[in-house]
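Give me the 3D structure for Pentatricopeptide repeat-containing protein At2g13600-like.
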Amino acid sequence: MCSLGAKLTKYSLCSALNSCAKTINLFLGLQIHAQIVKIGFEDNLYLNSGLVNLYSKCNAIVDAKRIFVHMKTHDQVSWTSIISGLSQNGAGREAILMFKNMLVTQDRPNCFTYATVISSCPSLKDELPNHLTTLFHAHVIKLGFIFFSSFVISSAIDCYSKLGRIEEAALLFYEANVKDNVIFNSMISGFSQNLYGEEALKLFVEMRASNLSSTDHTLTSVLNACGSLTVLEQGRQVHSLVTKMGSENNVFVVCSLLDMYSKCGSVDDAFIIFNQTVEKNSVLSTSMIMAFAQCGRGSDALKLFESLLTEEGFLPDHVCFTAVLTACNHAGLLNEAVEYFNKMGSEYRLDPQIDHYACLIDLYARNGHVEKAKELMEKIPYESNYVMWCSLLGACKVHVEVELGREVAYRLIEMDPSNAAPYVTLAHIYARAGLWTQLADIRKQMQQKRVRKSAGWSWIEIDKKAHVFSVGDATHPKSCEIYSKLNQLDLDMRGDEHASKALEFLEF
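Predicted structure for Pentatricopeptide repeat-containing protein At2g13600-like (508 residues):
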């Protein structure tokens, strides 16, 4: 248009700015900004709103704020643009303060403004997010947005879900007058994030029955739910839907597929998907390395990592090295782990983070070097967290390190007095060392402090139905038959043990 000598208008410039914002083209946007100043349109309200939107979408939030501050007049669009920009760039507190400033002007927030400001709440700290979410929820009910705006409803559901208030999110979902795929996606994602996998799958089935189209975001959430429930059959069905929808090239969907198959113990299927993916990035490669690591195939994980470095010029980041050290940990490869840990700084100029130190400390402890693990914990530039001390205590249990185990256990009890795990582990250490008096003391302490170990749960899928069990559980409809079979198996094993000992005696 410029090369043809045509005159640039405010409308053409505004359209060009919107196109740059959608394509995240900051370089071209800067040239258009220069043209706006050159022509003399820098005080135009609509163009300035477009510039705020452009700079916000391109992560240049400082420039967006500068444009907004120097605007002579503001309207509903410009306020919403800057609030949205601040929220999207991780400045949730500033977004809410800007919303507060908007309320004292004559410009009234619309449904998009409220959707944006509600989305900012989870990024805040302390109890402020819960209070503000409830406050904004009351605002949108009073204004009526909650009854017809899917953007506001989905933002509120997403916010409640991120704050762990899943019951309120579900209540909001089921009370919505009209449910579109945006609202369904938010609720399915919320269930999945909060480990309500069964509810997520049920809602996905309901969504499909309502003839609402699934998106890549839907598939990602559902695959995560399948992985958390370890339901391989349902995961395969969702994989078929991924193929049918043509979403095999979406990196988030593929990563979720890898995660689902690895959590279900089918890491070979995950590796097939990885090899079939045309464009592999660092996220996908790291996911595959972690999949091998979590399934106990540390050597395969390291082999893949080395092949990526040599054949594809892969540049590992902090997350990738966490996966590599996890692989070394699960495979018990101490020397290799130390080598990779040192390479982080020497070859890739990456400063080890607390997760990397945690992997190395755990590996030292697992291999019997408990004192070395403790020394490293005291030297690292981070404060040792609960997980690190738990790893060290577990190693003390395996290697019957009584004195160090006692010290670590009481440190953990001080950090979380209500957790029974340190008491139980210390009791096991005393029992293995034959310290029965100390064992009785630790049990007495648990009784006095009313600390109890929570029962573990396990489940198995038969004929597409999950059966859940707990220790001493008698709620299953076939519990009598189950216990009868367990007793029979116990007798059979005892019989085999006696027969084995008798055979050994005869051979002797």
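The longest strand covers residues 457-462. Let me know if you want a second pass.
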